[in-house]
Amino acid sequence: MTEQNDTKAKAGAIIVPVTLFEQNCTIIWDEPSKKAVVIDPGGDVPKILDAIKQTGVTVEKIWLTHGHIDHVGGAAELRDALNVPIEGPHVADKFLLDNVVASGARFGMTGGRDFTPDRWLDEGDSVSIGGLQFDVLHCPGHSPGSVVFFNNDLRFAHVGDVLFAGSVGRTDLPGGSHATLINSILTKLLPLGDDVGFICGHGAGSSIGQERMTNPFITGEM
């Protein structure tokens, strides 16, 4: 579990790696109120609950970047445990949320449940926790319903599996499209600004500027 605190002392975040895919389940909170959101609880719910307890925050929402099993496998269980709403992803990923159990079975992951979020998200929507507000960007390509959460004040984004440090999301799964993914990155993420840092779904985070300069999947398209 790794912890990050924003330099402006407005927000904090911890990353809790979950499942055999080492997915970055992320807890972000508004520092003044300690109100928090869990992003992409892919599984290992007891581990997530323990991290919440250790951090001393009050989780009020669950946000989902997309519908793949390693990001949503524990969502229904965590919703029941905390009695909080699930927001996201885009409705284009409904076919994935309708098949959580079947998808988990292919990887030997048990305990997941098919579910419907309390709120689907779309381009132009916003989500909030405490005093923090995030714009929603619909960024299909890795999955049809992938979304990114961007906070302009903090110059920070959670990009799910759309973009990685040195790579991009895989596009060989149902509904994936490499051309669509690259278009999402070029038209939605790069314009956010080089100073924007991000947490992604797997591995270390990065910044938009770093990826613009060095990510081979991006530099070859510019």
TrEMBL record:
Superkingdom of source: Bacteria
Cofactor needs: Zn(2+)
Entry keywords, A to Z: Hydrolase, Metal-binding, Zinc
Record-linked InterPro entries: MBL_Glyoxalase_II, Metallo-B-lactamas, RibonucZ/Hydroxyglut_hydro
Signal peptide: none
UniProt xrefs under SMART domains: Lactamase_B
Domain Metallo-beta-lactamase: 22-202
Name of the molecule in the record: MBL fold metallo-hydrolase
Native species: Bradyrhizobium agreste
